[in-house]
User: Fold DUF2797 domain-containing protein from Halomonas flagellata.
Amino acid sequence: MPDVTDTTLIDAVTPLQGCLAKLAIAPGAAGEVARYTLRAGEHRFDLNARLGRPLALEWTGAIACTHCGRATRKSFGQGYCYPCFKKLAQCDTCIMKPELCHYFEGTCREPEWGERHCFQPHVVYLANASGLKVGITRRTQIPTRWLDQGAVQALPVLEVDSRQQSGFVEVLFKEEVSDRTNWRAMLKGETERMDLAAERDRLLARLESGLANLRERFGADAIRPLDEAPVAFEYPVLEFPAKVVSHNFDKHPLVTGILLGLKGQYLILDSGVINLRKFTGYEVVVS
Ligand SMILES: [Zn+2]
Assistant:
């Protein structure tokens, strides 16, 4: 069989079988919609080209751990087998809540992984997916992180030296702004655009003393303001759902419908929506 790479997209009518990875999303050029690629095993499938046409995904019942490849009856933490979920640093609570980083207590699950991933520049950003939210990400995950959330706008605000520091800054921002995306609202329609630079200035002024405290703790230049321009994203959506109903392979292994749109990690079908990231590792047949 010839090698299948990102650039050799399979003919759209061929059924494909493989374990799902999260959707690969590339930002569109200025004013153009994001490009979505479904990844199932070694197969790559251009979803933008399928818009307006029927799409079927059928779960075979198999799940392979996204880390070790082992078969698992259930998926933990969006794609891991139970042993990996309990063992890997990337599955630890401190990834979701970086302010709980316990590296310095000597209890990091994988100190070397932590050094490579957590002790790297992190960015605190504002985004608009379903309204204003704060978030953190590794510098290298920009803009993937925002596209995964279905953000229509984003603005890097501060840069720090570690994931833990970004967690402390995020906790501070959460006094004023949510850190959550309301996925139903995100999928329901056009999100109203905001002036993120003005929001940034407002929040930085309000949080000034809190930020000064963190700088006292981590060093005067530990939390650096970024002077970047807001970015905007467009998603390929023909029609937003009036009512958001979600598909779930665990309940109904066959998901079919007309593909009406792609936003964040969701497929929008005329029969309902599905968060494909939630089913990372699920083996599906795509047709
Ligand atoms: Zn595993």
Q: What stands out?
A: Residues 163-173 form the longest helix (11 residues).
